[in-house]
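User: Can you help me understand a structure? I only have the sequence.
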Amino acid sequence: MSNMYNLPPEGGQETFWSMEHFPERFQFVIFRNWNRVPVERISWVLQTTPQQILLEAARLGLREYSAEQCNRWMQRGYLTIIRDNWHILNYRQLIELLDVDSSKLYRILTEEDFMFHKMGSFKPHCPDVYWSELSEDSLQKTARIAELIAPLTASKAAGYEFDFINELENPAAQKLEALGGNSEELRLIYSYCAPFGDVLLPGTADPFPEGLLAQYQASGINAVWYPILLSSLTPWTGDEDYSENWQLRQQTLRKLVEKLARYNIKFFGYLNEPRALPREIADRHPGWCGPEHRDGSGRRALCINNEQVYSALCKGIHDLCSAVPGIGGFFTISMSENLTHCYSHFKADGCPVCSKLENPVENIVKVHQALWDGIKSAGSNARLIAWSWGWQKPWDLQILDKLPGEIELMCVSETELETDCCGIKGNIIDYSIAHPGPGPVAPRLWNYAKKQGRKIIAKIQLNATWELSCLPYIPVPQLAKQHLTNLEQCGIRDFMLSWTLGGAPGGNLPLTQQSVSAWCRNISEKHASSIEKACSCFSEGFSKFPFDNTFLIYRGPQNFGCANLLYAAPGNRQATMVGFCFDDLKTWTGNWHYPPKILERVFMQMAEKWQQGLKILQGISSKLADNSSFAELYNIAESAWCILQSSANQTAFYNRRDRHCGNPAEMPNLIENEIELAKLMIKCQQKDSRIGFEASNHYMFGENNLLEKIISCQYILNSYVQ
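Assistant: Let's start by predicting it. Here is the structure, written out as tokens:
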């Protein structure tokens, strides 16, 4: 089985070496992993003692060590740990740091929401790094670092990341007022704190803690979803070794379904099936497989036109539904995303059957037919929702003509919605709150499906999007409500309310059953009008977001905000999908679709409008000093302003550094402002540990990242002064 777990090779430039804001390399390892990885693991990697690591951390001015916090991070924040060490440690040392084996790291990189792709589909070569004695010069530089951050790390009362988990794990601590609503209308959401990995094995962090479920129930949520790999829950391919521990996962899923039922919440599995097989498993099934994956991994698609594959898939879902009879349903993605059937990546070359087909219609229909037959043969009441993501005109309607009428249709609401930024047209695929849908695609499919008598569902983002992913919700209720109103006019009553981001309870979710005015009155009856005016400013500012395709939303600075390091010199690094944004202004602008000066101006306009709203809230803050709901709103709004202003600063900095747009003399002021924004963001995060968190990426940034930004900016600023 070892051949299935070959990690992608290391190689290429050593991108670490351009970062010099710590005197010694090993200090990066300590700083980035402090209170995240147990000190024993850090000392093992650096080949020194735990006592020495504690001494070095104290020299750097870091907070008091917390073993409990490290345990939280190792369970729930390991993706952030991987990301922060990607350019510092090689695979061997990264495995030592995480205390896993290569097979576990392989599964994380390949199965946890495209983690390796987020890292750039590239692992830079990193030479071994070990502890060494600090020279006198390094000691002096380290002391200056400690002095710089001391005011931010001195407080023992300051909150930690993941503090919000304590509340979500305690249902008795909830002060809830049920919204009610129609329980027949689907309100499907992703767990706010569920990793995207293998959570059904015993011993993993609880993806659905009791307190979270209590809040969901009070908010009218009646369904949650989670990605499932069918082979991990039942050996449907006939390969017991490939489905190792499937009985344990199945047992955990049964218990989870029972737990959810106590809150009147159903479980929905997200299916990308039949999932491509590793070469070693594929070789056991002659005739089953079609094209190889383009990434060179050797994984092969499964031909759904092969009767054995069709029957095995049908039996697999039958066995799962029989073993977990209370499962609420499944929704599918049948094009792109993971490699599944031969046509799933828009090309069927390599399959003697599917390569002769003009389009993927037959494959998509057969996948859904196999799943539906399996559900019904098990006597299950599980729903099956066909998600139209990746379907194309004109053959998308042909799929609906051939699907069983009981299979429901879900569409992304805002697909192909046109945007206009300073006269420059753009187009949305998915993930927008700034520009309320629907676009032209979804209504066309919904209307066709309604004529068939088919149930229809809208997939939207109500709380957060990749436009600004690191907040529990974006306080723009006017925009969120406009989208809901538009969909109501289309006859939509059933919603998938979030992808992996946006699953925080509360926020904009009550708007499914409330007006904006009522939403504001819930915060303060007396000052509702001022709150509504402030949120109107936020909504107006956010509506300017320069949305086109996925360039900016996936790779721009707004997802990391104040934590994204500044780079004094170009590094020729390419931004990656919600992994690293670097200084890649070309990608931020969509390969110059938006002129850099326009991007800078729009981010600045968004921040200025947001600041107007904050001033309105400041005007009533003294009268609401004891109002926790208002305090939460203000803190989240201030965090959003920090991120928008930082995005404007970063764009301005690189415009002046590389493109000579604006006055270069402004660069020191921009750096100083970045320092102040990072300091303010630390305070915001200490008040609300949800700031910076997103389920499928864990923390986009934490205190360590913001402190490092301050240190880095001061290092660059010193070079200007000199």
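Now, to help you interpret it: The two ends are 57 Å apart (CA to CA). The chain has three domains: 2-153, 180-528, 531-721. Let me know which part you'd like to focus on.
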